[in-house]
Amino acid sequence: MIAYFVMEVGLEGQMATYSGGLGVLAGDTLMSFADLGVPVVAVTLLYRGGYLQQRIGPRGEQIEYEQRWYQRKFLKKLDLKVEVPFSDRVQKATCWEYTPGLGDSLRIFFLDADLPENYPEIRNLNQRLYWANGIYRLRQEILLGIGGYRLLKALGYEPQVYHMNESHSALLLVELLKELKDEEKVRRRCLFTTHTPVPVGHDRFPVNMVKEELKSYDHMNWDREVEDGHINLSKLAVKYSGYVNAVSLKHMYVSREIFPEREDIDYVTNGVHHVRWIHEELKGLFNYYIPGWNSNPMLLQQVHFIPSHLLYEKHERIKGQLINLVNKQTDASFSSDVLTIGIARRITPYKRNDLILMDINRLIEIAESCEGIQLVFAGKSHPRDEGGKGIIKNIIEASHYVKSRTKRLKIAFIENYDIDTAKILVSGCDVWLNTPKRPYEACGTSGMKAGMNGVLNFSTWDGWWLEGGIEGINGWGIGPKPSWQDNTPSDDLQDMKDLYNKLQYNIVPTYYTKREEWVKLMKNSIATIGPFFNSHRMVNEYISKIHINLLR
Which CATH superfamily is domain 309-532 in? Predict the structure, then answer.
């Protein structure tokens, strides 16, 4: 039995229990666990107000609202309570179970401390996801790690492996150390997956705050774990986990620099749930020409047997759905016969979401030299990320600027990016643009979803694309291609110039004048990305490479 702990999980678009990539990846992972019949129990937190409902104001400002949702439509409350310590007070937590179900081998629980008998500040922990730092965040992580550990005990589970996704659940180690009284025994039960090379992704709390909130755990010598006056939960997870893995080969080398005390950090490259993300129109085509692809994604290599005109016709129908979405939500007036590029993901400075707008006049020139270019942006910025909010404003301002100067370049921004919107975007665009600053993209998964749908990737050589991209065969890279060990940051100006040159001299001419070659690239994309960058392969790697070794 594997216990899978994660701060957020994206199972359905209308369940406001995720913010973005980490949660959606968790959902994909659990779906593959279920499909493959792996016995797993998953633990996360319930958020009544979700992450954020996004609206864009007239001047491009992001306006945030609560994501109120009806949890009883998806979850059933269990008649069970566990005690969770917060400083001198013992509080109670109950849980909800995901009821639509994914199979007999998987159960998913959402912890909830919003109970009448609890103090208001504890009840508030289940209101918003990633909304505050400091004591609020620490208490959320106590609820997840310690509360989650005690929940599984109360339900009668005895997991052989505790899989911690990011360090948000690392405090379950405190309970394990108390129970097993042996650091090596703890290590033989724990796997830590780190998902980010960005410092903000590694939670740190003042040591005195940790000591105060966990004062009942007198077996912990927190002074032994302190770093610059703080407890770094990622460092704690690295220290007490028998196995630590990054989420791409490149990220492994980056992580070994972040955690030099663990030269043995391994990697399992992320994947996405292919059945979830391949569009229904394509599923029908695959069912006819590639029977069995849904249970065995390796068969997607046979996509070349599908007649090219049928694949292109299906893509055009899917693209029509995207065009309708854009024109319904914006005044961009997109057309179905124009090259459409998607840029959709969390909006934050290191992802450089607006790199393609860096020289807007050059972009206008490229669009004027052909039948046109359409850019569709989507993504949320964290409420406290002023840099990310600035990017959104820049995108909106650019859309106004180009509207007054040309009809050949159109820019749209889709509000409130979520799972349901993503399914249309990753399948309906012609090109999927990803421009993170190297080496800060741990993996990235949106391009995998796009690639499985025959959408061509145009991406910085970082994360998964450094493994999966084949220049001019299944997409295009941006900037110089680094060696695995080269962790020097990329140059914005250099990447911008390469982006514009490849857009003008490779992508645009191929799309508009070489239809057969474009469809061949689409087939190459499906055949090279679908069979490997799926969560079935990922889960099998976790089991064969890590879980079994921990159990030996």
Answer: Glycogen Phosphorylase B; (3.40.50.2000)
Here the contacts of 415-419 (C-beta below 8 Å, separation 24 or greater) are: 415/54, 415/55, 415/56, 415/329, 415/378, 416/53, 416/54, 416/55, 416/380, 417/54, 417/344, 417/378, 417/379, 417/380, 418/13, 419/10, 419/12, 419/13, 419/18, 419/24
On whether the 2-205+233-271+537-551 domain is CATH 3.40.50.2000, my answer is yes
Domain with CATH 3.40.50.2000 in the chain: 2-205+233-271+537-551, 309-532
Specify the range with the lowest mean pLDDT, choosing from 78-87, 220-229, 374-383.
220-229
Amino acid at the residue 333: S
- pTM (2 d.p.): 0.95
Write the pLDDT tens digit of every residue in 460-481. 999 999 999 999 999 999 999 9
pLDDT over 90 (residue 169): yes
Q: How do residues 403-438 score in pLDDT, each as one tens digit? A: 999 999 999 999 999 999 999 999 999 999 999 999
